[in-house]
What we know:
The chain is 75% helix and 0% strand. With 505 residues, it is mainly alpha-helical. Helix 6 packs across helix 16 and helix 13 runs antiparallel to helix 17. 43% of the residues are buried. Mean pLDDT is 75; it is low at 1-8, 424-452, 474-479 and 492-505.
Amino acid sequence: MGGVALDVGGPAVKAPDGGWGWAVLFGCFVITGFSYAFPKAVSVFFKELIREFGVGYSDMAWVSSILLAMLYGTGPLCSVLVNRFGCRPVMMVGGLFASLGMILASFATSIIHIYLCTGVITGLGLALNFQPSLIMLNRYFSEKRPLANGLSAAGSPVALCCLSPLGQVLQYKYGWRGGFLILGGLLLNCCVCAAVMRPLLPPKGSQKDAEAPSSDEAENVPKKPKAKLLDWTVFKDRGFLVYTVAASIMVLGLFVPPVFVVSYAKELGYEDTKSALLLSILGFIDIFARPTCGIIAGLKWVRPRCVYLFSFAMLFNGITDLVGSQASDYPTLVVFCIFFGISYGMVGALQFEVLMTIVGTEKFSSAIGLVLLMEAIAVLVGPPGAGQLLDRTKKYMFVFLLAGCEVCLSAIVLACGNFFCIKAKAPAKEEGSPESLALDHHQTGSTAESTEGQEERDKMLKQEEEEEKMAARPDSVAVDSQEVEKFLKEPENNGTLSPSPETCL
């Protein structure tokens, strides 16, 4: 591996919940902002690209779709690379890919070049940064993890509010080619964020002890199995299965309202600038909603029940879509964007926090890749499906109704699946016991049962080995040392035994 520093700390290393973790949090904030906001920021250049290459808007829309597909669909590939090489090297390469794609796109001569450079290469680079940054954040924070997830998720609306105006300024001054070139240089900051992701290693003392065990311990300690590049055993976890199904349904409708709300306002007869202001309102509310939700999720009473808080956030978002479908004027759309920003921010702050809680630190690197792959299918189906519904009905009301029903359904699936499929099958524990708290916190009853069973089997094997050793000894050797000491220290109870070199120890 040469100079590559692997993340060998693993789950045995305690998360510092601060210190260098705040630098990791800032890097994750920047990466999240680039990953989610960049596909929307690129759309600023679409009009000029349509005029340059003589294509339609539907052809240009594939650029953002390919970017999102690469961001979500390459999840398993990112998991394999992270488990093989570690987070920091993967993010370094990802930053170079993201920058290279935009730089090459500035020299494009056809729309196919834009697809390959901006969509595939830059999308792959952002994916190689986004997923490892979340994994590192999970390793550096434990007690303060809900707050850390909320703060890092706030990078998405902050970057959107910055990158969209920046793209307009660059297009006006330098054209789309110069704008792509400058944005490519801006994406090199991903490499700076990657340099911050220092591997979390055990303390030096424990590391030396682990590296040089004694000869007796080396014989008894079993060899550690090789780390899996992609841990498929997460599908045996009922909590993970319920989460994956619910998240996939949610993504079908979650991103639809932000895409169509501006067109909805234009359909009602409002000018372009006033309609575009709705997205700014939504993003501004979203900035404050995510950290606030992270603080609430970290409360002592709320954190063991964060799965249900996530279900409430999805239900809130879905009901907001259903009510917003009846909007008939601009003030109603403004109120809709305020409530949608709150619920959207709650969902964004909790979605990865809940996944970390369900699968744990050790399996999170594999679980997030598989979840993103499932969501990629829904991302490609959701907005285009809503667009087809709009073409047939010519009414935005049905688009918002469909999105609201899909998100509400995902909330019901997550809440009911968690309550009935997991807690009903788990063994009954006394309220307030460590077992019940762990079950509420992780929602992985089957995994806990298998771990406890393995520990009991190991203890039984050790006891059998000790009994076999005792049985192999001669009867004359198998003497209790405590009885010998007691006999020698109490001469008054030993008859007329006189001290002698043989009895004085």
